[in-house]
Amino acid sequence: MILREILDAFIHTLSLKPVLEPLYKDKPMTINIQSTHEQVWMRLNQEGGHVLESNPETADVFLSGQDKVIEAAMTGAEPMLSLQKNGHLNTQGSQNHLLALESLFLLTGHKSHLFHNH
After folding, report:
1. Residue 5: its pLDDT value, please?
2. pTM for the whole thing?
3. Whole-angstrom Cα Rg for the chain
4. Whole-number pLDDT of residue 62
5. 15 contact partners, CB below 8 Å, separation of at least 6
6. Residue 77's pLDDT is what?
7. What is the pLDDT of residues 70-94, one digit of tens each?
8. Taking each helix axis from N to C terminus, what angle separates 95-108 and 3-15, rounded to the nearest 10 degrees?
9. 50 near 82, Cβ under 8 Å?
10. pLDDT band for position 118 (50/70/90)?
11. CA dihedral angle for residue 69, residue 10, residue 108, residue 114, rounded to 10 degrees
């Protein structure tokens, strides 16, 4: 799965789960996600999530890593901050933004251990 497809699936799932709005609605953030082969920008705010077609001047959260690591974090297969702690994922941003984003990935991810037994 390429990064843009994963991001589109995340945004679509997020739109179907209004119960998650408190995690981002009043805490808007711009996110830069860079894998080995791609870079995408996303904004979360009161209008939901959407991909940015042009690079904004700043971002609140930066994620970078190998393709499989980014996919694991975004699909909920592995907690984002655990991947960071183990040195597999680079993260930058405030703790509040990072925790909110990790929660959203885990609560929307189709590979999340929260909802599936593997």
Report:
1. 93
2. 0.91
3. 13
4. 97
5. 48, 49
6. 93
7. 999 999 999 999 999 999 999 999 9
8. 80
9. no
10. very low
11. -20
Phi, psi of 18 (to 5 degrees): -60, -20
In 3D space, the residue among 112, 90, 108, 106 whose CA is nearest the CA of residue 32 turns out to be: 90
What is the 3 state secondary structure string of 45-109?
ECCEEEEECCCCCCCCEEEEECHHHHHHHHCCCCCHHHHHHCCCEEEEECHHHHHHHHHHHHHHC
pLDDT classification of 112: cutoffs 50, 70, 90: confident
Q: Is the Cβ–Cβ distance between 98 and 61 less than 8 Å?
A: yes
CA distance 35 to 50: 18
At 111 the pLDDT is 81
Q: At what angle do helices 95-108 and 67-74 cross, to 10 degrees?
A: 80
Q: How far apart are CA 47 and CA 1, in angstroms?
A: 26
